[in-house]
UniProtKB/TrEMBL annotation:
Record-annotated active site: C79, H181, E183
Keyword Acetylation recorded: no
GO molecular-function term, one example from the UniProt record: glutaminase activity
CDD domains membership: GATase1_PB
Binding residue positions for L-glutamine: G47, E48, S49, R108, I136, R137
Pfam families in UniProt: SNO
Identification of the protein by name: Pyridoxal 5'-phosphate synthase subunit PdxT
SUPFAM superfamilies, alphabetized: Class I glutamine amidotransferase-like
Job description of the protein: Catalyzes the hydrolysis of glutamine to glutamate and ammonia as part of the biosynthesis of pyridoxal 5'-phosphate. The resulting ammonia molecule is channeled to the active site of PdxS.
Organism: Amycolatopsis xylanica
Keywords of the record: Glutamine amidotransferase, Hydrolase, Lyase, Pyridoxal phosphate
Gene name of this polypeptide: pdxT
Alphabetized NCBIfam families for the sequence: PLP_synth_Pdx2 (TIGR03800)
Length: 201
């Protein structure tokens, strides 16, 4: 069983650990460099991306993490984690750091102009049947590079407004990200997909 870390500086850590264990991995919280060096892959949970970016600097994990991701370590970011993995974040703070595993531009709190949080069933590439997705002050992907695989978009429902068709899940090589929180629904399929990516890597 691969060892998968969950960045444990802030945010929804326990839920990811539980889901990873259900999905067939061993899981540990990662706060220190020696823990980061041990894991075969890393989950970056939801929370507040600006705070997490600061804590990464304080705990001296920012550069080591950038290096591991650039070196091919599988990573999965949900919500704030997606923001951290993006090459660029709009509506961020000027001092917010990016880890840069994904050639995407995200917009923070993008749905906030309409509603703060909502649930929606999504079609997710490679998964059979609709995936329940919980969005909490979520970002969306405004732009994705040619090497980025789009896995899910917001469906065109009457209430979707300008959110319709926005990209909310992507993969680039061994880096996976969702704007929503698959750890909150009891549906393990996204975590299984990530554990599979870690196994193959
Ligand atoms: N709005 C948060 C941010 O910008 C993300 C919210 C979340 O992770 N649920 O970092």
């Amino acid at each position: 069983r691969p060892l998968v870390g969950v960045l444990a500086l802030q945010g929804a850590v326990r839920e990811h650990v539980a889901m990873l264990e259900h999905a067939g991995a061993r899981a540990i919280g990662v706060r220190r460099l020696d823990e980061l060096s041990e894991v075969d892959g890393l989950v970056l949970p939801g929370g507040e991306s600006t705070t997490m970016s600061k804590l990464l600097e304080t705990f001296e994990l920012l550069e080591p993490l950038r290096e591991r991701i650039a070196g091919g370590m599988p990573a999965f970011g949900s919500c704030a984690g997606m923001i951290l993995l993006a090459k660029q974040a709009l509506d961020g703070r000027p001092d917010q750091q990016q880890l840069g595993g994904l050639d995407i531009v995200v917009r923070r709190n993008a749905f906030g102009r309409q509603v703060d949080s909502f649930e929606e069933d999504l079609e997710f590439a490679g998964l059979d049947g609709p995936l329940p997705a919980v969005f909490i002050r979520a970002p969306w992907v405004e732009k994705a590079g040619d090497d980025v695989e789009v896995l899910a978009r917001v469906p065109r429902t009457p209430s979707a407004g300008e959110a319709a068709d926005r990209i909310v899940a992507v993969r680039q090589g061994t880096v996976l990200a969702t704007a929503f929180h698959p750890e909150l629904t009891g549906d393990e399929r996204v975590h299984r997909l990530f554990v599979e990516i870690v196994r193959e890597a």
